[in-house]
Amino acid sequence: MTLFPDRVLSGMRPTGAMHIGHYHGALKNWVRLQDEYPCLFFVADWHALTTHYEETQKVTDDAWDMVIDWLAAGVDPAKATIFIQSRVPEHAELFLLLSMVTPLGWLERVPTYKDQQEKLSDRDLSTYGFLGYPLMQAADILIYRSTMVPVGEDQVPHVEMTREIARRFNHVFGAEPDFEVKAKAAVRKLGASAKRFAELRTRYQQEGGAESLQQARALIDTVSDLSLEARERLFGYAEGAHRVILAEPAALLTEVSKMPGLDGQKMSKSYNNTIALREEPEAVTKKIRTMPTDPARVRRNDPGEPERCPVWQLHLVYSDEATRQWVQTGCRTAGIGCLECKQPVIDAIVRELAPLRERAQRYLDDPALVRDIVTDGCAKARAMAGETMRDVRQAMGLVRDR
Ligand code: TRP
Ligand code: SF4
Predict the structure, then answer these.
(1) Centroid of ligand 1 to alpha carbon of 173 (angstroms)
(2) Terminus of the chain with fewer CB atoms < 10 Å: N or C?
(3) What CA–CA distances, in Å, run from 244 to 2, 157, 186, 195, 374?
């Protein structure tokens, strides 16, 4: 059913030390995906510039630091391609070319545009770069013909817009003057399935219905040794009268991490309530030990209520059923003290982070390792991006081949 093979792509803005909320939200998901699909993971440093253009040096430092955090978390350069956006300048070329066919209204309507302008009122967000940011994201995705984009809920509208951009691009630039002739030639190559394809196409064009379109496209997959060009034409011909040059990606919704911060609010750098991925055991211990608890437990003998305590939220993430029972009973009967209650959480986090810190240390001791990983990842990414760009330039008629 797919014109392009499965490919996962996701990016993150460099924001400084990543924390265990990122780990339980996005990174563990990436580590799982890298075993299932070809994956590309990149540092979206240009995206960071759209809001932080006056801190370029920090953005660059954070970018490299973030790669170490990813490696620490278990993103494996032998499985996934890890790269930095600004080192693959093809992203900028596609961004520019897509901008020619992107209606302004589409960008102005993206929910994060007005949201962020209101929320980050201390920043200069009245720039062209900030308005164009979702289109840059579309270019990031489309340049690899990514089929799956793991993102949080807030990013889903961006993936939606990416799909619209792909459709629009294919519609505008996939229409060749002799498309019909070429498409019909491609249909003949379907051999025994040609008739069925034509029927499904007619049905789709007359009655609509995603199912006929899907069936027609599925047919294309059953015929081996079709050229990519023929497949592109057939894929588009099933639907209308254009080739499909850019793939429409699907958002792969990342479950929201329920990681509470040290103060019970959501864990976030801006609340200053985080435990970093590479936090030292002593710091983890100190941070948890000084966490607020149920305000009703002033003295050791006062009974408490876990539901009112941020530490309980951490038990929900880290503790097994037996420990949770022990907390519930011990807290409500004042049978245990808060420091006692916190210890299993401290132990669990320290245990969880030990292998991450160990992996990170290897890279901190030998920065050349990280450099090589990124250089290698960028080269691989550029090769893939280059293929798409060749097709894009050709489809747009920017190459003089006569
Ligand atoms: N906009 C994303 C964020 O703020 C980061 C990002 C940039 C991204 N380009 C992407 C995510 C492409 C997925 C795919 O989190
Ligand atoms: Fe919170 Fe545990 Fe203290 Fe109860 S005993 S208030 S759950 S830290």
Answers:
(1) 26
(2) C
(3) 11, 22, 14, 21, 31
Closest C-alpha to ligand 1, atom 5: 12
List of domains in the chain: 8-174+247-258+367-395 (3.40.50.620), 179-239 (no CATH), 278-364 (1.10.240.10)
Q: Specify the residue with its C-alpha closest to ligand 2, atom 8.
A: 338
Indicate the top mutation candidate among 47, 144, 269 to test ligand 1's pocket, ranked by most ligand atoms within 8 A of CB: 47
- Quote the CA–CA distance of 355 and 351 in Å, as a whole number: 8
If one residue of 9, 27, 151, 162 were mutated to test the ligand 1 pocket, choosing by the most ligand atoms within 8 A of its CB, it would be 151
pTM: 0.88
Provide the 3-class DSSP secondary structure of residue 166. Answer: helix
What rounded mean pLDDT belongs to the chain? 93
Residue 276 DSSP symbol: B
Q: CA–CA distance from 57 to each of 14, 32, 49, 62 (Å)? A: 12, 32, 10, 9
Higher-confidence residue: 264 or 376?
376
Interacting residues of 14 by C-beta distance below 8 A, sequence separation 6+? 43, 44, 45, 48, 59, 62, 63, 65, 66
What's the gap in Å between 131 CA and the centre of ligand 1?
15
Question: Could you give the strand order of the β-sheet that contains 148-151, starting from the edge strand earlier in sequence?
Answer: 80-84, 39-43, 8-12, 148-151, 250-253
| Residues 86, 97: Cα–Cα separation, whole Å | 17
Task: Look at 89 and 232; give whichever has higher pLDDT.
Answer: 89
Q: Report CA(385)–ligand 1 centroid distance (Å).
A: 17
Which of 338, 342, 345 is the best mutation target for the ligand 2 pocket, counting ligand atoms within 8 Å of the beta carbon and taking the most?
A: 338
Closest residue CA from atom 2 of ligand 1: 12
Which has the closest alpha carbon to 324: 334, 314, 338, 335?
314
- Region 247-275 average pLDDT: 90
For residues 331 and 113, what is the distance between their CA atoms, to the nearest angstrom? Answer: 45
Pick the residue whose CA is nearest to atom 11 on ligand 1: 11
